[in-house]
Request: fold
Amino acid sequence: MALDSSAPLSRTASVVLVHGAFVDASGWRRVYDTLLQEGYEVLVVQNSAVTFEQDVERTKSVIAEAKHPVVLVGHSYGGAVITEAGSEEKVLGLVYLAAFVPDVGESVFDLASQEVPGAEKAPLLPPKDGFIKLDPQKFAAAFSADIDPAEAQFMGAAQRPWGLEAVQSKITSAAWKSKPSFYLLATEDRMIPAQAQAAMAARAGATVVKVSSSHAVMLSQPEEVAALIRTAAKPNQPN
Reply:
């Protein structure tokens, strides 16, 4: 019987995608479609962005569902989530996308509060009812300046508030200390300055790939994101 050459190859790694703050899991659609068509099992975590503990547990539960060893991918705040959840035995590697990479005893708040000379601060509004948001009028310029302007405007209007508890929770386990790590550094990011990304990636000993992108790298550069995930999914990656 002839093989169907259009059928995707079966892969031996699963990919788990963990989104960041102010957005939801729908932002992964382009990356998801690309990897799915290539034969990867792709699972997507929908964070609460209310408590860090809840988001870590959600991620661990999705990891447990995966059929193969897992490449765990985190964007922005999702980087903190995968740092904590990535110590699970099933995880073979971590991929950080314009992400926070805390060490044990650090929170996203601690990292975001560090001064970066010459860098603009993210346009956060004052906390309200235990949550923070970005100024909708400044969202596109800070978060997603290189995607379709109408889509960027909608993202600002539809943003999900970020719980202060999630922002301020301290990491208790840093998976990057024992798992191979990869970092996609967005050079045009106005949420997490490129200098801060570089410092966190270096501390984690991550393999770094630079890309000219806003913070919304999964939307503006989905092929670059998919390429780094493919690299992380290759067997025998060094620690």
